[in-house]
Write a structure and sequence with these properties.
By secondary structure, the protein is mainly beta. Helices cover 10% and strands 43% of the residues.
């Protein structure tokens, strides 16, 4: 009888042992190593908060049903324990991986020896498929000191029991940023289209006659725009042969003067021809903003003629200078009446 009891005990024990072994084998039969896996710290700088991207490939032959993804960190890292969030659209677009499926929820544990981020609510994953997820909280983790660290990425079922896992190395460095400096040099271009002009017809006591306009084209990156000034050599049209000057009309008083046919006079009219798009607003100074038969008084000292409030790019701002003159019936005849305008400009930076 004792022999039979002992034999029965041995057989029962062997059966239990076999059942235990089979149970353990069944639980791990699907376990394999994830492949093509990386964990991207979106900041690698030491002691710096970072969001995280995880990409992994489920091994071929996997038939288990996943419920969560866990990323285990060394104790050197600090894990956010509240407010963890996730997204998949950006990583799927950027990597070509499949967005981690499910109604995802993210939790963090910052307990030494068990620091991890767990993405729950994962639906069943397909074998041989690459998945991705972004842990989007800006301080999902805070890096430790500079060095190399080993992280473990694991898929799990509802147990939770490990299904597949792998280890990855990540690096934390002293600083992960490069500061870029650049200089945009100041630029100012000022172009006169020609250096001579003449009245379009001979001066006559019966009309006010104008010169062919001379243009100034200004391009500049001066943020506060530009100013152009004009001064005059003779303050009139002077003839050496006739010993005569047809004097400029009026005084510099921020208002144009109007010429009349039959009365000697000489003025300068400044017109806006083109205001460069995207820059400042161009204004003609009140003194030289003449209309028909009108213009500003010419001065020996530089007088502001036009200005802009901002940059001038592209084809530039274009200003046109036109002289206007009238004579009396007894203005001495001569062919050498002349004058010189000096037109200058500067950018306002």
């Amino acid at each position: 009888m004792r022999i039979r009891s002992k034999l029965r005990y041995i057989l029962v024990s062997a059966g239990l042992l076999t059942t235990s072994i089979l149970g353990i084998w069944a639980a791990s039969a699907n376990a394999a190593s994830l492949s093509n896996t990386y964990v991207r710290l979106n900041r690698m700088k030491a002691t710096t908060a970072s969001s995280v991207r995880v990409v992994f490939r489920v091994p071929a032959g996997n038939s288990a049903t996943e419920d969560s993804l866990r990323i285990a960190f060394p104790d050197n890292f600090t894990i956010a324990t509240s407010g963890q969030t996730s997204a998949t659209a950006a990583c799927a677009t950027e990597t070509g991986a499949t967005a981690l499926p499910g109604t995802l929820s993210v939790t963090g544990s910052n307990t030494n020896g068990s620091k991890n981020i767990t993405v729950g609510g994962v639906t069943n994953l397909s074998a041989s498929t690459t998945y991705c997820v972004d842990l989007t909280k800006t301080d999902a983790v805070t890096n430790g000191a500079a060095g190399q660290y080993t992280l473990t990425v694991t898929t799990r079922d509802t147990g939770p029991t490990t299904i597949d896992s792998t280890s990855v190395a990540v690096r934390v460095i002293t600083d992960d940023q490069v500061v870029v400096s650049a200089v945009v040099p100041s630029s100012f271009n000022f172009v006169l289209d020609a250096n001579t002009t003449s009245f379009t017809t001979d001066l006559s006591s019966g009309s006010v006659v104008s010169t062919t306009g001379r243009t100034v084209t200004i391009t500049t990156n001066a943020a506060s725009g530009w100013i152009t000034w004009v001064s005059d050599s003779n303050q009139g049209l002077t003839s050496a042969a006739a010993s005569k000057t047809i004097a400029t009309t009026g005084t510099v008083n921020a208002a144009p003067s109007t010429l009349s046919a039959g009365t000697e006079g000489y003025v300068l009219d400044v017109d806006l021809t083109s205001d460069a798009a995207g820059g400042g607003t161009v204004s003609i100074d009140a003194e030289y903003n003449g209309g028909a038969n009108a213009g500003g008084t010419l001065s020996a000292t530089a007088q502001p003629a036009a200005s802009s409030t901002g940059t001038a790019g592209g084809a530039g701002d274009v200003i046109t200078f036109v002289g206007k003159a009238a004579i009396a019936g007894d203005t001495p005849a001569a062919s050498d009446y002349t004058d010189t305008w000096t037109i200058i400009g500067a950018g306002s930076y």
